[in-house]
Amino acid sequence: MKRFLTLAALAFAVLTTSAQREPKLTIKAGAGLSSVVGADANTKIKVAAKIGAAYDLKLYKELYLIPELDFALKGFNPDGVNFITLDNVVHMTYLQAPIQLAYRFRLKKGGNIVVKAGPYFACGLFGSKATISGWGFRKEVDVFDKTYGFRRFDVGIGTGLAFERNHFTIGLEYSRGLHRLHPDFRLYNQAFGITLGYRL
After folding, report:
1. Which residue segments constitute the domains of the chain, with CATH numbers given?
2. b/e per residue, 58-93, with b = 16+ CB within 10 A?
3. pLDDT tens, 110-140?
């Protein structure tokens, strides 16, 4: 009985301490839409998704630096890209690392509004096979094929708006690539969606 009471007291102390401190780690997941943009883009949108974690680093008062690490599913639904035709929906899975500057607005009735923006860096892990055709040839290649595929590395900017209350958060996010997906075409990643998170 004494051992049970001791464990219960310790558990209560841990819960009380974590409830008093502000959560720093956020586990999040989301879904939305992705596409490519640019002068050579002639595509349709497809479903996008992400899952990852972010960590709040307090800089000054309500100003934070938030590094994040995500698995992000992007891509597009081809409708013709210049002289090359991709017959399949293109899926690209990235390991993505946004680093955003955020400001947290405290609401009088509880909860926070968070506004954030900053760069992201991404490395393509894997993706779908695509059949490309044009100039008299037809070939099935990996989406990150060195000769016919897209560049594996991407860099861009992202913005977000989120509402936090207690340990839960819901937000809207948008990202836009600044690095060409292919050296011969002006195509850039674009994704937007809604995320849900739990703050620890």
Report:
1. 23-199 (2.40.160.20)
2. eeeeeebebebebebbbbbbbeebeebebeeebbbb
3. 999 999 999 999 999 999 887 766 666 777 8
